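Same chain as my last thread, 427 residues:
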Amino acid sequence: MTAPNQASAASQQRTGADEAVAPGPSLTEWRVPASPEESSPAAPPRPADLDAAPEIFVEQVRLLYQHPSLIVVNIVNALLVVAVLWSSFPRRALVAWFALFLVLVPARLLIAYLQEHQRWPAARAAAWSVIGSAVTGAAWGLLAFAIISTSNIAYQVFIVFVLGGMTAGAVLLDAAYLPAFFAFVVPIIVPTTLAFMFRGDLMSIAMGGMLAIFAAVQAVIGRRTNQWIVDTLRLQAQRENLTADLYRTTAELTRREAILRIMANHDELTGLFNRYYLFETIGRELRRAQRLQAPITIAILDIDHFKDFNDNFGHEAGDEILRAIGGILKSSVRGSDIVCRYGGEEFVVVFFDADTLAALPRLARICETIKDTEYTCRGLPLPGVTQSVGVAQYPVHGRTVDGLIRAADHALYAAKKAGRDRIDVAS
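reply #2:
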């Protein structure tokens, strides 16, 4: 079991989940870039409008197809025109004209259905919407022939009223995408205005001018409506992008905070807990042990003649020894115990709820494992190493962290003085 897992288990047993320590990552994960530039290739900042433009276009097209049922209004209004003009205009022409809408409207509804269920690309859906609007507008523009063929002002006013209403309706239906809006309005207004001008009388010219002015006003309204829709969509897209960026930034900050927290508690070389974590944890555990009248045994392990080893084989080989011993220690203790790198070639093992009688056999096995392990560096064998160990028990040899460490350190000094490769208990 790894040292972080040991701390987690020990914390759950002793002080609750709020003191659990996250598992230690690999050493490469500890090396957090100092700045965002180090973690990703430099890229020039992009304007938010450029980032949001594709999303805005997709939303515009979605709004075009949001209410396809409104297209049916074309049939209703066309039927009303036929009913009003039935007695004064050629009926075959009116029936043929009305038949255009009976073909166009179902075709546009079918396109809307296919777009929704087949998930057309936005560009394709937009193109078909422009085509449908243009053909429908051209069908309404055919009423220009009715204007030319009648001198009855009432019919002319009625036609102008209907076409003006259809133009105003385009603001509601097509203003989300200006090409579709103008594709519908222009084929209506241009032929009708020209038809009034063709008649030549003052009233027709005035009505043509009024229709053109009304269309211009509707165009301004449609343009402003479109701008409002685009601005709203842009703000929505930017807000969603900012929310996503904020989420990613928060997640990255959380990850880095966790890594920094691990780095603050761990030794980078061995992955063991460090001296800071040792003193922070032992102080808490001594209070618990005092409350529960439970023993705690602390052992300081020191690699014998480690300075000579580094001088003879190099610090890289020494680091391999330290890493290997750290792994042995982690795999040789209980999940409730703690293993720390105390500094240099010294390690500390804390046995919770264990006195020296229980801890000494386990320390002896650890020392034998360390002595019998075959070490290598860059594929080359290294000589074996031994450990000198000093042991102290709470509350027999000390009641404070400093007192226990001092007692174990004195025992370690005695072990080295007595010839090394041995375990001594504080007196």
